[in-house]
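Quick one, probably user error.
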């Protein structure tokens, strides 16, 4: 594959292939591993349960032939139940027919915009999303109805941080321990994991980290900021911490965060990139706690699992300095017609299929089933926590989480740990998952847990 023209044609042909014969399956697998090592990052391979230890055999992501469901196929045609959901992007299922049809319709008309003429979908999508936003019952002037569209959740966080700094004229941020907000320099400043941060210390903006759900610690930070004159621009929190291990914020903590930000003139930012769009049983997780932020970062499922799209959402008050200087933040691809057509379709699916309401029922059933397993296998499972279909299974040891994840994969069910560690396995299936599929998963969970005990895993580790 050294000749450019020949290589280009060959690679293009792979995109058009659907079913592969045995020889094609093996060839594509071998070339994927080889080129990954050559051109991507071979370090990733040793962390993939879909790649053997010798890296001579791999299962490849390939097709979603079950539209709108929680199932997908690898390149050999093997079928998997997806309980990971692309880390939360498949809220409306994989390749939902309405989202695909809507994006195709927009593609037939126009893919990207001119950058100079006004693009109508940005206006319509902003208005539509504004109707889903949390309402502040204590402050009628606090309305989340301004939107800056991005290409990802990380970009959305980055925009929120800039808006907070621009709005307040301050530079210090406060974030929670175990919080994850992305890995660009701004968002990484607020992400707490040392492993991700330490190589870039010195280049990150000043951020103070505080224990999650600890009101006294949060009060102390604001008090110290007042006494030293290093005033806080913004406090960024996930109402439900995702990568940190699926920790649910308490009503008291999040309401205290709102009160402290108001008292000290700081901006409250909620990162709902992973917890939003029905994932917890409401449009936005903060609606469970009756707390409305000044800024909100959204993404992941916003594009229906079809297009990458995110947004920074804010109030008119926070937006004012940006209105005065609108070229302080611009984007070439953020809010493009294809992405926003997917968003508009996704919102319609969530409404038409009553996914938030369905998620409450399914989530309660799933969590109750997992709690039953936790009581039965309490030496292996430490705790079950979560909300809706954003669930964490914390094992008593990191090794148990790794083993469980691998064993589930051998049984064609996809789960994974969080970026904090593998001790907590996340469960974030498409919200379209059926109750029978949840029961099937719980049965397989029990088989795997029983096998782990029977094999004497505890005594080996």
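Nope, works fine. Designed sequence:
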């Amino acid at each position: 594959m050294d000749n450019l023209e020949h290589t280009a044609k060959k690679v293009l042909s792979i995109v058009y292939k659907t079913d592969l014969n045995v020889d094609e399956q093996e060839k594509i697998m071998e070339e994927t591993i080889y080129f990954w090592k050559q051109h991507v990052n071979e370090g990733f391979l040793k962390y993939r349960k879909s790649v053997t230890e010798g890296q001579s055999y791999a299962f490849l992501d390939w097709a979603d032939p079950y539209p709108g469901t929680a199932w997908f196929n690898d390149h050999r045609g093997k079928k998997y139940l997806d309980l990971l959901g692309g880390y939360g992007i498949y809220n409306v299922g994989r390749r939902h027919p309405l989202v695909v049809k809507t994006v195709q319709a927009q593609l037939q008309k126009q893919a990207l915009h001119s950058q100079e003429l006004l693009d109508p979908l940005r206006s319509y999508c902003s208005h539509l999303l504004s109707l889903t936003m949390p309402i502040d019952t204590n402050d009628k002037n606090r309305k989340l109805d301004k939107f800056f569209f991005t290409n990802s959740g990380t970009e959305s966080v980055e925009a929120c941080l800039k808006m907070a700094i621009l709005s307040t004229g301050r530079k210090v941020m406060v974030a929670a321990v175990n919080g994850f907000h992305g890995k660009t320099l701004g968002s990484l400043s607020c992400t707490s994991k040392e492993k991700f941060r330490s190589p870039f210390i010195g280049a990150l903006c000043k951020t103070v980290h505080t224990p999650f759900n600890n009101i006294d610690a949060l009060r102390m930070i604001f008090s110290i900021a007042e006494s030293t004159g290093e005033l806080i621009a913004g406090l960024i929190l996930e109402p439900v911490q995702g990568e940190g291990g699926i920790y649910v914020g308490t009503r008291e903590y999040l309401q205290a965060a709102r009160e402290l930000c108001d008292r000290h003139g700081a901006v409250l930012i909620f990162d709902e990139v992973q917890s939003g769009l029905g994932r917890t049983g409401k449009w936005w997780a903060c609606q469970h706690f009756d707390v409305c932020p000044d800024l909100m970062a959204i993404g992941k499922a916003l594009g229906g699992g079809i297009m990458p799209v995110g947004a920074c959402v804010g109030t008119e008050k926070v937006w004012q300095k940006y209105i005065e200087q609108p070229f302080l933040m611009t984007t070439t691809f953020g809010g493009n017609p294809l992405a926003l057509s997917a968003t508009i379709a996704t919102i319609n699916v969530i409404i038409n299929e009553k996914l938030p309401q369905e998620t409450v029922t399914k989530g309660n059933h799933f969590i109750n089933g997992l709690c039953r397993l936790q009581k039965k296998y309490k030496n292996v499972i430490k705790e079950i926590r979560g909300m809706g279909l954003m669930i964490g299974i914390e094992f008593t040891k990191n090794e148990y989480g790794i083993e469980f994840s691998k064993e589930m994969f051998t049984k064609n069910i996809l789960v994974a740990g969080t970026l904090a560690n593998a001790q907590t396995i996340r469960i974030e299936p498409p919200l379209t998952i059926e109750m029978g599929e949840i029961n099937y998963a719980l049965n397989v969970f029990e088989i795997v847990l029983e096998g782990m005990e029977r094999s004497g895993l505890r005594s080996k580790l």
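The radius of gyration is 23 Å.
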